[in-house]
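Researcher: I've been going back and forth with a colleague about how Cell division protein FtsA might be arranged in three dimensions. Neither of us has a model we trust, so I'd like an independent prediction. The organism is Flavobacterium defluvii, in case that matters for your notes. Sequence below.
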Amino acid sequence: MEKDNIAVGLDIGTTKIVAMIGKKNEYGKLEILGIGKSKSLGVARGVVNNITQTIQSIQQAILEAENNSGYKIKDVVVGIAGQHIRSIQHTDYISRNNPEEVIGEKDIQLLIDQVNKLAMLPGEEIIHVLPQEFKIDGQSEIKEPIGMYGGRLESSFHVVVGQASSIRNVGRCIQSSGIELSGLTLEPLASADAVLSQEEKEAGVALIDIGGGTTDLAIFKDGIIRHTAVIPFGGNVITDDIKEGCSIIEKQAELLKIKFGSAWPGENKDNEIVSIPGLRGREPKEISLKNLSKIIHARVVEIVEQVFAEIKAYGHEDPRKKLIAGIVLTGGGAQLKHIKQLVEYITGMDTRIGYPNEHLAGNSSEEISSPLFATAVGLVMNSIENSTQSAIRMEAVNEQPKVVYRNVPPPVQRYEVEENYVEKVEAIEEPREIKTTKAAAESTETKIRRSFFDRYVDKIKDFLDNAE
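Model: Here is an independent structure prediction for Cell division protein FtsA. You can compare it with whatever you and your colleague have in mind.
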């Protein structure tokens, strides 16, 4: 088994922490070798607020993934999210000294470095710079400027900003768990890779990832990321509302939401009652399912309306920015009954539930194909892609440097559920060491994103080492 073709993604969420080990099989599908998950303790709304508890949860998920796969995890690619994330649009340009020379990577990097010097609010740092469209000497709508002539190189950028302290806290948790941080990926982008097709990104689509503590939004149009946002509400606030409204404990409220909850009150009749066991000798508590749905409905409407406000802020009502492919819902909150119909009713946009099964191998279990694991699957996919491209560059190190563009849409793939998946991965006897590699030789957008992330990861590592 090729070491470079194996990667580990770590999704540090508010509700759960997932460690996923995967590789690409001979058909180009993602084969999950092992998965570990633990209850997330010490994370609130995507932000670490208790280092010790977060480390323990990470170690538990890592250990379970290692036991399921037979592999030893050395480093991981981690998803970055949380309520501290925000995005801005920015346009910048450079004037080239010699317009008679073709535009190269160094010109684009010079432009990127210029954007990275933008002044941010105190405590904030740029963590993601995503070029959208380039303009050369007034000629607009250029997606790949390398190899063209021009004196003035201009580009619009989608800049993602976050709190530096929050990201360093994540790095500290990873390092203290005994593993290395090999890369960072914005979680909405990872989820988008797992559940969206290239055709949807071209047509225009809004991905809504409803997690436990936050709801992440990523908007694509013409194959380019146009807008990202993090709403500081998720499934946990729905559970809290049920707990308060029905006067029950949190564990019972979560079970009620999962088993009997609905985002559409009209589906339940007045005489539908569920009985909840009383606490320590007390009488059972009877709860009307219609009232339960009303509580859930009120909070889900609030979340969806906030997300829709972000979609309007992007400019969805402009015919040129119209999202033809509508909305894709993913994350654990997407499993709530009738949420698809409610989102369609509020937004008037076509909606579907996003499953990561399109990219998974046929022997993947039904659990892994759930929207719950979309982010983890996307993180593994990103890490494998980076590792593969790094290997390509290493092979071509003695050749003339060249830029390779990859704009081919992935083929539509299907999956089949196989029950004894766990028994198969446990058949591996000897533990092996996984070591992912960093990105190189990528398309213009991906290359810029990864090169900056690599530098940012190094910066975090230096900060952690000096803080010892």
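Researcher: What would you highlight for our discussion?
Model: I'd start with this: The domain at 86-163 is CATH 3.30.1490.110 (Dna Ligase; domain 1). After that, consider the following. The longest helix spans residues 289-314.
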